[in-house]
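User: I need a structural model of Penicillin-binding protein activator from Chromobacterium subtsugae for a docking pre-check later this week. Nothing fancy, just the predicted structure tokens so I can convert them on my end. Input:
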Amino acid sequence: MQRLTPLLVGVLLTWLAPAMAQTPDYIIQSNSAPIRALSAPPGQTPRLAPAQPVAAAPLAALASAPAARSAARARVRIGVILPMESSALGEAAAVVRSGVEAAAQVEQNAELVSVDATTDNVVQRYRAAVADGVNVVIGPLSREAIAQLAPAVTVPTIALNSIDRQAAANPKLFSLSLVVEGEARQLARLMRDDGRVNPLLVEGGDALSQRLAKAFADEWRALTGKDAQRRPFDGGNLPALLEASGQADALALALDAAQAAKLKAALTPDMPVYGTSQLNIGGNQPELAGVRFIDMPWFLMPDHPAVKRYPRPAAALTPQTERLYALGIDAYRLAVQMAAARPGAVIRLDGVTGDLKLGRDRVFERQLPAGVMGGNALR
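Assistant: Understood. Predicted structure tokens for Penicillin-binding protein activator:
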């Protein structure tokens, strides 16, 4: 999708707060915005755009979600196993499920079976769903629940997080997540392809920025055989950063949007600056105009037919939760594809969260489009 018609870049992103004492992937680390702008309390499905409403599914285990006419036309049964009643993950689960239901409403090619499950009962609920006729599963959401379920997986199951190395290997368990390290590696490749040879990597001190910086540095070394210059961000000592930037041909930012804006304002206008979706927090962001960045088509290409065919959530969702909504859309589309796929088949999807391909270790790899903040160039 990243090669399609250029569109005006829209800007949206922050991340959800961590749910447990673990290293999460898309539930990463708190920035300033909470997820309390949901119109429904935890455990209820947020409403969708009024033009294409979706009825909220009941929360009882194994309750059928779509309307009767959709069920009549269904070709597969998809179990959506999420912690809807969890105090920590209930809101995130509700957003993911609303994205799954939005895709189901548009595609009309599968029946949804909604299952509320926690780490303690996920195996029992999973087995009951499969016994009830579910032949592909979306979920669980937390890495702890995924590890608990891994040995019991018997049908294609798309876990919505990364899978711990300690989890039992299972050829029917797959991982679909919004991994920040993947963005950092893609950013390094983008800069290399743009002809940059001596980038300066500026990194924040928070855990998310450190993860981004490490992944970028590792990929740059693998691509070029050289170490990227690295400097910590110090808002009180910008002259030192500016001096270091004078020896570079581009800047790679592993910073939050506020830090990036402060640094960008001090740079000369001709200095090429690159970043990830971490910079994309919504609004016009004129202070970051000209920054080249990567993000999902759901935000960068909202008017493309492959994106706009799915209903947008109502204004009740905050930007960071909307990422989980988009993830739910792609999870549904992959589940339908995998239910019909032969063993060993190539699984690809031109998704709203990026171009997805099933890669090594049964992990879906994501390729994102690149845009320019304040511009309309997609490459």
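Before docking, keep this in mind: The mean pLDDT is 82.
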